[in-house]
Amino acid sequence: MHRYILAVFFSFFFVKSSTAQTFKNDSVKLFLDKSIEIIKSNSIHAENIDSVKSVLYEKSRNLATIDEVAPLFEEVFKSLNDYHGGLKYKGKTYGWSKKSSYVNPYLKAKLRTETKVNSQLIDGRYGYIRIPGNNDFGFKKVDSIANDIVSNINLIDSKNIKGWIVDLRVNTGGNMYPIMLALKEFIGNDVIFGGFRNAQNKSTGSWEIKGNRLLIDEILLERKSRLNYPDKTHTPIVILTSGYTASAGEMTAISFIGRPNVYLVGEPTANYTTAVQGFEIGKAAAINLSTDYVIDRNHKIYKNSIVPDFEILNGDNFENIDKDAKIRKALKLFKASKNWVH
What is the pLDDT of residue 342? Predict the structure, then answer.
């Protein structure tokens, strides 16, 4: 099952409720009944669903149409503390955008301009690749995104590379699968490197590399392009993060946590580490819900931001990477070779 990016929709048919007469419009009651049923059965944030239901129903009793009800779901998702989900109705999304105190003016500006993969060779010995977010929500660009990342790696790779910097500072999310597919040789081999768990702490899927092949929830993902130098299992890697590293960017970072010879450097991430699934309600509406937490290869559950091993605030400089504080820290780590396992 594709979580987080590719929503899996389940259709439901309404059955008239015996208590619908308490509402001005029966269809409003039926819409709310099904919405609450879906949330209660699937959300990881359903602890206070009874109070959410009570408030929602009271505010909806005298409404004449579902058009009037839909905006109320902004408060529903706020009450659920689910800022990763939302109600999609007639082309609009009604959810809750949690305000963040994080401010990084330099990186915020770069979110608009740094939309392509970028790779550079540093000091002739270290590979650097910056991977932005993507908009492959329809799961149609897996090959092109993965191949683009691989091409950028091959552009600078050689037998002389002593370490790689994977920069996720402007990766605001999208589809995590092509990113992991492109980086699978870096992530490891014959390892379960992450997965999902629901609110009952039961496994609902895993991320695995077996025989150099990537399987997500037992679905095989294959890549057309090849690395010129595929032996990356023990290559030292530094992952760079920021407060804009979110969703698929965070999943990518988690895929490396616990791997030998890896450090995370930068700022705590945006805290969008839940898996999201979509549930259809009739023809015009669907609810996206946070349904699972993400775990790393050591089974640690991520319910909050990813905190880097070395926290460095600001100091970003894509134009002159020699002055970039986070890249400079990464290079210092590489040069302190005694800290790496060989």
Answer: 52
DSSP assignment of 9-58: P--------TTGGGSS-HHHHHHHHHHHHHHHHH-TT-TTHHHHHHHHHH
Mean pLDDT (the chain) is 91
CB-based contact 186:164 (threshold 8 Å): yes
Residues paired with residue 123 on neighbouring β-strands, in sequence order: none
Tell which residue, 9, 64, 81, has the closest CA to residue 284. 9
Burial of 184 (0-12, 13-18, 19+ CB in 10 A): buried
* Residues in CB range of 86: below 8 A, 6 or more apart: 73, 77, 93, 94, 95, 96, 287, 288
CATH of domain 105-272+292-335: 3.90.226.10
38: left (phi over 0), alpha (psi -120 to 50) or beta: alpha
Q: Which amino acid appears at position 292 of this protein?
A: D
Contacts of 48 (CB under 8 A, 6+ apart): 79, 80
DSSP state of 308: P
What confidence tens digit (pLDDT) does each residue in 173-203 have?
A: 999 999 999 999 999 999 999 999 998 889 9
The partner residues of 56 in beta bridges, in order of sequence, read: none
* Beta bridge mates, 121: 127
Indicate the pTM of the whole model: 0.87
For 203-244, what is each residue's pLDDT tens digit? 999 999 999 999 998 999 999 999 999 999 999 999 999 999
How far, in whole angstroms, is CA 324 from its chain's centroid?
A: 25
How far is the C-alpha of 132 from the C-alpha of 122, rounded, in Å?
20
Domain residue ranges in the chain: 105-272+292-335
Q: Would strands 163-167 and 237-241 be described as parallel, antiparallel, or unpaired?
A: parallel
